[in-house]
């Protein structure tokens, strides 16, 4: 069983997947920074400086008011954190768009390489027109 596991791990697909997951985790950190440090301030300009990540509603019904979402969570209040959800949606849309652009460009490169390969590929080997004419001539000469 250990040998089978080693064979499974050594396969190229598993290693490719592991590299993809590691790169994806690093890419997620970059996108989070992009959203938090660049996009969110721009959104804040258009919404009058509103910070979506700190938007919430306390739903435990006791009328308590907290300075921030972190303070509400620390106090054990039930908070409906709709701002965090909005930022998660924005993160997802940005990640999906960037991945789409990457896949689109990789596919274009693959298509260009394939077309170039097809253009360079030699014609299938077969008799030339001259060879066929010689065969016809020889065939007619025999009769």
Write the layout of secondary structure elements.
Elements: H1 2-10, H2 12-46, E1 57-58, H3 69-74, E2 79-80, H4 82-120, H5 129-142
Antiparallel strand pairs: 1-2
Summed up, what is this model?
72% of the residues lie in helices and 3% in strands.
The average pLDDT is 82
CATH architecture of the domain at 2-95: Orthogonal Bundle
What about the largest sheet? 2 strands, antiparallel
Strand content: under 5%
Shape: elongated
- Cross-sheet strand order for the largest sheet: 1-2
Give the distance, in angstroms, between the N- and C-terminal Cα atoms: 73 Å
The count of DSSP E runs of length 2 or more, i.e. the number of strands, is 2
Helical content stands at over 70%
Uncertain regions: pLDDT < 50 for 5+ in a row?
none
Radius of gyration: 32 Å
- CATH domain fold name of the domain at 2-95: Non-ribosomal Peptide Synthetase Peptidyl Carrier Protein, Chain A
Helical/strand content category: mainly alpha
Q: Which CATH class of the domain at 2-95 applies here?
A: Mainly Alpha
What is the H-and-E element order? HHEHEHH
Number of helices: 5
Q: Which descriptors apply to this entry?
A:
single chain; 143 residues; mainly alpha; Non-ribosomal Peptide Synthetase Peptidyl Carrier Protein, Chain A; two-stranded antiparallel ribbon; 2 strands; elongated
């Amino acid at each position: 069983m250990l040998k089978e596991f080693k064979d499974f791990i050594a396969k190229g697909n598993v290693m490719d997947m592991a590299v993809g997951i590691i790169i994806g985790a690093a890419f997620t950190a970059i996108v989070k920074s992009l959203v938090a440090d660049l996009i969110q301030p721009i959104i804040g300009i258009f919404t009058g400086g509103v910070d979506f990540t700190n938007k919430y509603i306390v739903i435990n019904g006791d009328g308590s008011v907290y300075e921030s979402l972190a303070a509400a969570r620390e106090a054990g209040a039930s908070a409906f954190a709709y701002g965090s959800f909005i930022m998660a949606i924005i993160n997802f849309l940005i990640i999906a768009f960037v991945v789409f652009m990457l896949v689109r460009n990789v596919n274009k490169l693959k298509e260009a390489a394939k077309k170039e390969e097809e253009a360079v590929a030699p014609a299938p080997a077969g008799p030339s027109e001259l060879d066929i004419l010689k065969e016809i001539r020889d065939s007619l000469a025999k009769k």
